[in-house]
Design a protein that fits this description.
DUF2802 domain-containing protein
Length: 119
């Protein structure tokens, strides 16, 4: 009987030692999950930042830019160059008219008057 107790005691010591040497899969999974969570949060932050920039650009292009200057010909020239730049980027006449706060007919006449600049 004492031999059985000694054998069971030795087996228990071996098993305890083996359990300490074995890898902890739960800790590895927790670390991987933490890294995934951090990378996901970083990506979400980057996407939110990009979306904010895109929204600001869209808001700036949708609102008509009205600059009060003393020289009206200079103001008209900047408006014309802005309209031509938008037209050369492929915006439709209606979209340009909406963003500039003018009618599509005015945009069409400006584009027709400045065809040589566009080519």
């Amino acid at each position: 009987m004492t031999i059985m107790i000694i054998i069971l005691f030795i087996i228990s010591i071996v098993l305890i030692g083996f359990s300490f040497l074995q890898r902890d899969n739960v800790k590895e999974l927790e670390q991987e999950l933490g890294h995934l969570q951090l990378s996901a949060m970083q990506e979400i932050y980057k996407l939110k930042k990009k979306m904010k920039l895109v929204e600001e650009e869209l808001l700036q292009s949708d609102t008509p830019l009205k600059v009060e200057t003393k020289n009206t010909s200079e103001n008209e020239q900047t408006n014309t160059s802005r309209i031509l730049a938008k037209y050369s980027q492929g915006m439709s006449l209606d979209a340009i008219a909406l963003s500039e706060g003018t009618s599509a007919e005015e945009i069409s006449t400006i584009v027709k008057q400045n065809e040589r600049v566009l080519t």
